[in-house]
């Protein structure tokens, strides 16, 4: 498992990436499987809620798992390459 930093710069970079993905509408439109336990049914709503939650709470260590979940989404999304439809 890759270790991530929770400093302002790292979190802002992740949030900027998520917002750019949301703005460009290049996120998967169907079900998106992150792992065997997590399936995202609506990536747009997932991204909107993650951005809102992390923006307000990134300094609170209780929300570090939420930030990790967005990092995991990014990793899985980028691993599918140029075909975001799954």
Largest sheet: 2 strands, antiparallel
H-E order: HEEHH
- Multimeric organization: single chain
User: What amount of the residues lies in strands?
Assistant: 5-15%
Low-pLDDT windows of residues: none
Shape: globular
The figure for the number of domains is 1
The first-to-last residue Cα distance is 24 Å
Evaluate the radius of gyration: 12 Å
Structural class: mainly alpha
* Helicity range: 55-70%
- What is the number of helices? 3
Question: What is the arithmetic mean of pLDDT?
Answer: 91
Order of adjacent strands in the largest pleated sheet: 1-2
Number of strands: 2
Protein name: DUF6965 domain-containing protein
Domain DUF6965: 22-76
InterPro entries: DUF6965
Pfam family, one: DUF6965
Structure description:
- This protein has 86 residues and is mostly helical.
- It has one domain.
- The protein contains 3 helices and 2 strands, in the order αββαα.
- It has a two-stranded antiparallel ribbon.
- The longest helix has 17 residues, at 8-24.
- The radius of gyration is 12 Å and the shape is globular.
- Residues 22-76 form the DUF6965 domain.
- This is DUF6965 domain-containing protein.
- InterPro entries: DUF6965.
- Pfam families: DUF6965 (PF22292).
């Amino acid at each position: 498992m890759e270790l991530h930093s929770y400093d302002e710069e790292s979190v802002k970079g992740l949030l900027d990436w998520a917002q750019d993905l949301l703005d460009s509408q290049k996120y998967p439109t169907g079900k998106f499987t992150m792992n065997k336990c997590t399936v995202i049914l609506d990536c747009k709503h997932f991204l909107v809620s993650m951005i809102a939650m992390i923006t307000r709470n990134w300094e609170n260590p209780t929300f570090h798992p939420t930030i990790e979940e967005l990092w995991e989404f990014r990793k899985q999304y980028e691993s599918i390459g140029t075909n975001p439809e799954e």
